Amino acid sequence: MALMITDDCINCDVCEPECPNDAIFMGPEIYEIDPHKCTECVGHYDEPQCKQVCPVNCIPFNPEWRESNAELKAKYERLQAAPTK
Asked: In which domain, by residue range, is 49 found?
């Protein structure tokens, strides 16, 4: 599953720089997570770094974006292979 940021977000700016996939960005009102880039830190860390640093615990799993650990690993590998701009 990809992660998501809920309306409880206080825009504290600590999650965005922790994301190794650059999946976190500032939305119209709060930070958001691009599910196409979120691997829950699979391939980088043992645990999602954004969840580790969030002071208000507003980053749950996105129930609309279900992925297995193998799918997350494959996404990580695709992202690593993609050319950077």
From this structure: 16-81
